[in-house]
Amino acid sequence: MIEIITTGGTIDKIYFDAKSSYEIGEPQIENVLREANITIDYRITPLFRKDSLDLSDADRELIKKVVSESAAERIVITHGTDTMIKTAQWLQDVSGKTIVLTGAMQPARFRFTDAIYNIASAITSVQLLPPGVWIAMNGKIFAPASSRKNVAMNRFENI
């Protein structure tokens, strides 16, 4: 079984007007998995509905606690991209679990979004990767210590 922990971020954003006013809506991953006809055994644990810039160290400790106490050995975390690497690094000392963080540059509700591909990559990766903490974005798997978000290019990359 794969546990999917949702924390908010762009993947769950809902935009309201031309000025890009938004709020974080309900987690979208269940819709994405259902529409893709995914047949794996999974459980969704909604934890936060926050922009990742609003996550505190206390929030990261709660994520770590939920991950550590989970009966699942394979965990996907949906997360905002701005602080995804920081959270991934925060989880580095969790042992015996394969943890994959993913997110999106465009909301899952948008017609053209990277959310679907990133979620698919994370779900596949968490089943294949060895224990540790990983980031699945832009068709690649990244180690948190050697990656960064390139804001200008709107993608993750190795450093």
UniProtKB/TrEMBL annotation:
Q: Which domain of life is it from?
A: Bacteria
Q: Where in this chain does the record put each L-asparaginase N-terminal domain? A: 2-153
Q: Which SUPFAM superfamilies match?
A: Glutaminase/Asparaginase
* Catalytic machinery residues: T10
- Which Gene3D superfamilies does the protein's record reference? L-asparaginase, N-terminal domain
Please provide, alphabetically and separated by semicolons, the GO molecular function terms listed in this UniProt record. asparaginase activity
Amino-acid positions noted as binding substrate in the UniProt annotation, renumbered to this chain? S52, T81, D82
Q: What is this protein called?
A: L-asparaginase
Query: What is the scientific name of the source organism?
Result: Desulfuromusa kysingii
Give the organism's phylogenetic lineage: Bacteria, Pseudomonadati, Thermodesulfobacteriota, Desulfuromonadia, Desulfuromonadales
